[in-house]
């Protein structure tokens, strides 16, 4: 590394201490977040690119802390994974997402599929399948209304476990999407072994599609791969009409992004769905 002056080192230490201090606070406070009712879910619509219909929604967790304010999942999910609190958070997210989806089904939006994110650490919890099943049954939903999103990197870090777990979910009737697809290192051989329903094109490719031929080529390759493997394909991070047009031309099935809607509180999501698909 580069030699830094005393002042630089001092600043560095101060920043380190601040980061470590914040980490400790997050760890301590996160342990109580579920029982204190500080978590909530937002729902981002998934749009059928051909028809404009709302096909479903992704549940995205938020942590509202009285002093820390709104903490983003990018900050607290890694902490939750390291400390094991992710298991309790994951149970809460799954249960709450199923409960809310049942309410929307009862309101007449019976086709909505809810997507729930599952992190790498949750994956290694042995009774995850039973927990997922309990959330679905508890809400009185059919398993086909649930899609589990798991990142490509989490799957690839333990392929044998992934094949077993995904198989259990498929047998149950739930579907599985590989999230952030294109950023990990799956081999075609591995992909073929996995009982998947959906590939989700990472937003890093979508963002620069209009001006980068290479990113368009990656997106096209993922869509073609999905076709070949008989999977659905979803694009995330659609922010402009141009993004949507390129993806529609490629034959991408579903899309989500700020062009359509940000992640919404439940009441706003219902308004959004009702505007497009009158009950
Ligand atoms: P992800 O699963 O890849 O989710 C997509 C992220 O992109 C979300 O950030 C979403 O709000 C954001 N996004 C959606 N549309 C757009 C867009 O058009 N442009 C841009 N720039 N961003 C967009 P969020 O909600 O902050 O979540 C971040 C990550 O945290 C998620 O990435 C997921 O990995 C994780 N996460 C969120 N909720 C949960 C959860 O309940 N459980 C677990 N295990 N992880 C979660
Ligand atoms: Ca996701
Ligand atoms: Ca993603
Ligand atoms: Ca991501």
Automatic annotation (TrEMBL):
Protein name, as recorded: PAS domain S-box-containing protein/diguanylate cyclase (GGDEF) domain-containing protein
UniProt domain EAL: residue ranges: 23-277
Domain of life assignment: Bacteria
Full protein stretch here: 423 to 701 of 701
The species this protein was found in: Caenispirillum bisanense
């Amino acid at each position: 590394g580069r030699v830094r002056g005393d002042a630089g080192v001092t600043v560095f230490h101060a920043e380190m201490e601040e980061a470590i201090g914040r980490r400790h606070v997050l760890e301590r406070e996160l342990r109580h977040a579920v029982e204190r009712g500080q978590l909530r879910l937002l729902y981002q619509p998934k749009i059928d690119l051909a028809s404009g219909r709302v096909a479903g929604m992704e549940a995205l967790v938020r942590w509202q802390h009285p002093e820390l304010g709104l903490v983003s999942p990018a900050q607290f999910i890694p902490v939750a994974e390291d400390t094991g609190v992710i298991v309790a958070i994951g149970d809460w997210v799954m249960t709450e997402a199923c409960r809310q989806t049942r309410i929307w089904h009862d309101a007449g939006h019976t086709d909505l599929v809810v997507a729930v994110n599952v992190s790498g650490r949750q994956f290694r919890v042995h009774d995850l399948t039973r927990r997922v099943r309990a959330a679905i049954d508890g809400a009185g939903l059919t398993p086909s209304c649930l899609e589990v999103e798991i990142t490509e990197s989490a799957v690839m870090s333990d392929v044998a476990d992934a094949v077993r777990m995904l198989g259990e979910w498929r047998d149950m009737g739930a579907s599985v999407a590989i999230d952030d697809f294109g950023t990990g290192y799956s081999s075609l051989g591995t992909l073929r072994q996995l009982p998947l329903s959906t590939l989700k094109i990472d937003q890093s490719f979508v963002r620069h599609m209009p001006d980068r031929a290479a990113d368009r080529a990656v997106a096209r390759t993922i869509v073609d791969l999905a076709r070949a493997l008989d999977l659905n394909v979803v694009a995330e991070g659609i922010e402009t009409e141009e993004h949507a047009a390129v993806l529609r031309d490629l034959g991408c099935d579903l899309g989500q992004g700020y062009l359509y809607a940000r992640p919404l509180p439940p009441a706003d999501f219902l308004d959004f769905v009702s505007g497009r698909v009158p009950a």
